[in-house]
Design goal:
Subunit structure: Monomer.
Bound molecules: guanosine-5'-diphosphate, magnesium ion
Helix content: 10-25%
Protein name: Elongation factor Tu
EC number: 3.6.5.3
Shape: flat
Oligomer: single chain
Number of helices: 8
GO molecular function: GTP binding; GTPase activity; magnesium ion binding; translation elongation factor activity
Family: Belongs to the TRAFAC class translation factor GTPase superfamily. Classic translation factor GTPase family. EF-Tu/EF-1A subfamily.
Largest sheet: 8 strands, antiparallel
Radius of gyration: 21 Å
């Protein structure tokens, strides 16, 4: 039998973010290497984190890689967020679930467009705590590295983070992977910074269970499995659930985390749920597994939206009533139409209040964050301020 997951330490979800090629995946592999040497994790090599693009393109595997490890005080699920603009959608849905982020910035290259875009999105989707890994410190010149550190602190301050005080740790993922003690020590320092800077979040354990579906898999002989992070509440084998979107009720017949069966999954856990008698093609990413009757899908809402400026990769032209982008709400991707207030026009860079009518209903609530996308790029990020209307 598989070894069961034993909850001995608080569980947190963290993720790497930052510009492509600044070393997010290398750093992720290095963290697992250092912790496996310490005996509190399994080494996950670079090419197992950086999954083959064709797999991602077919959409059957997880396009954001999760690895798990433990420090002295915490159990972490670590998401290596893809840096490429095409994958911002996953950055958004992934970032929505992380309790903290490691912003990876190359000490050689400094702040780049995706660095800024990820910081902005992190802020918009409510990532409260950021630790900076100034990576490639093995290759950067001291003076330049100093400048890059100032630049990153400024960027974070400009987006409302405590840029002056948050930890910035100089690391080399590459050298740490090679086992160089100076740089494995730097990874330890980074993990200490994460342990101390990112607090254990308040988990809504008493709320009715809710899990936005990230992926659907079939396990031969066992049935359909959905994966995702529990947003709130708890779930156990035998619990009745509803799959919103699929319009079906079922029973949970298995609960696992990272391949280990667990007695009870809680808010914040990354889990796989086996669902009794649900056909594979009935469930999709974007559906929601919840306590039956606890949620009401809605189409209309009011929101505050910040449109990215053109320089941030946003639109070049204004938005007017009738504009029809895609809305990324939890893991769902829904088209909708926008109505603007009196002025009826919003420019890239503006923060506006607008009414949205989605093409189909999804569970909505005040405070829910979302991304606005069109033609494959993010053009805004918003928060639901009122449901209905
Ligand atoms: P990602 O796109 O942010 O995930 O970046 P990768 O982890 O794929 O790394 C991009 C490139 O930078 C690769 O060629 C790595 O070998 C190199 N790299 C990553 N970390 C370091 C580092 O600490 N030092 C040096 N010199 N190169 C690094
Ligand atoms: Mg990568």
């Amino acid at each position: 039998a598989k070894q069961a997951y034993v909850r001995t330490k608080p569980h947190l979800n963290i993720g790497t973010m930052g510009h492509v090629d600044h070393g997010k995946t290398t750093l992720t592999a290095a963290i697992t290497k250092v912790l496996s040497d310490r005996g509190t994790g399994a080494f996950v090599p670079f090419d197992r984190i950086d999954r083959a693009p064709e797999e991602a393109a077919r959409g059957i595997t997880i396009t954001i890689a999760h690895v798990e490890y433990e420090t002295g005080t915490r159990h972490y699920a670590h998401i290596d967020m893809p840096g490429h603009a095409d994958f911002i959608k996953n950055m958004v849905t992934g970032a929505a679930q992380v309790d903290g982020a490691i912003l990876v910035v190359s000490a050689v290259d400094g702040v780049m467009p995706q660095t800024a875009e990820h910081v902005l999105l992190a802020r918009q989707v409510g990532v409260e705590h950021v630790v900076v890994a100034l990576n490639k410190a093995d290759a950067g010149e001291e003076e330049l590295t100093e400048l890059v550190e100032l630049e990153v602190r400024e960027l974070l301050t400009a987006h409302g983070y405590p840029g002056d005080t948050l930890p910035v740790v100089r690391v080399s993922g590459l050298r740490a992977l090679e086992g160089d003690p100076r740089w494995t020590g730097a990874i330890e320092a980074l993990l200490d910074a994460v342990d101390t800077w990112v607090p254990v979040p308040e988990r809504y354990l008493d709320a009715p269970f809710l899990l936005p579906v990230e992926n659907v898999l079939t396990i031969t002989g066992r049935g359909t499995v959905v994966t995702g992070a529990v947003e709130r509440g708890t779930v156990r084998v035998g619990d009745k659930v509803e799959v919103l979107g699929a319009g079906t009720e079922t029973v949970v017949t298995g609960v696992e985390t990272f391949g280990k069966p667990m007695e009870e999954a809680q808010a914040g856990d990354n889990v796989a749920l086996l669902l009794r008698g649900v056909p594979r093609d009935a469930v999709r990413r974007g559906h929601i597994v919840a306590v039956p009757g606890s949620l009401t899908p809605r189409r209309r809402f009011t929101a505050t939206v910040r449109l990215l400026s053109t320089r941030e990769g946003g639109r070049r032209t204004p938005v007017t009533s009738g504009y029809r982008p895609q809305f990324y709400l939890r893991t769902a991707d829904v088209a909708g139409e926008v109505a603007l207030g009196e002025d009826g026009i919003a420019l890239p860079g503006d923060t506006v209040t607008l009414d949205v009518g989605l093409d189909h209903a999804v569970p909505l609530e005040t405070g829910l964050g979302f991304a606005v996308r069109e033609g494959g790029r993010t053009v805004g990020a918003g928060t639901v301020t009122r449901v209905g209307g």
